[in-house]
Design a protein that fits this description.
62 residues; mainly alpha; globular
């Protein structure tokens, strides 16, 4: 896997992607990711957004 696949497309930090590490599944397959964030990165659909960016977005929406 490329270095790009291991980086969050929003902040550039490590996304801890299980698939990029060679595992069958990734942590992101078990969490709810806001539609707005997914649309933001739709040009890179197979790259995980990191949990920090997801959590930050959710906190800002409260």
């Amino acid at each position: 896997m490329s270095t790009e696949e291991k980086r969050c497309p929003l902040c550039g930090g490590e996304n801890q992607c299980g698939v990029a590490k060679g595992e069958k599944e990734c942590w992101c397959m078990t969490v709810s990711i806001p539609e707005h964030l997914l649309k933001t990165v739709q040009r890179k659909p197979n790259i995980c957004i990191c949990s920090t960016c997801i959590d930050t977005y959710k906190k800002e929406q409260v």
